[in-house]
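Here is one chain, start to finish.
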Amino acid sequence: MHKKKKSKKMEHLISDINQRLEGIQNIPSVFTDRALKIGALSFFALFFGSYMGRQMDSASFIFWSVAICIFGIFYAFHLLRCGEKKAYEVVEGMVYEMKGRHSIGRVYQVGIRMEDGRQTWLLMDKRYRFWVGRRYRFYFCREKQNILSGMKNLDAALNIGSFYGAEELE
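Its structure:
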């Protein structure tokens, strides 16, 4: 009887692991890429901060390096969990127009035409590059609320963290 309970627990454990692996394999590459970069940067901050803290004999420097590393690792796991649970919104379409790319400011507008003919404008940071005529898939946080004040620069600043990334489609 003891072996039956043990074998059922093992079967349950194996099925849980298989479900977790299937969920991880279905995470979009935007999330995994961003999580890996954040994780690597967090460990770099830990090692560099620990080294510099030891050189300067500063315990607070080491403490803050560890705190930054822990925060980064938790955020990376949050991204992976968000991708696994599909807790994101997707906008997919072709870029048909861009406004304000070369103007002063931090953001510009990207016009997206979806397959069903609808059009929408996305307010994007200038560090992200898109080309007219190409198809993209944009990933946004589902939990964040859009804060609209009427001023595009203020709206973009208040919605930081709602854009996860974009990938170009074939």
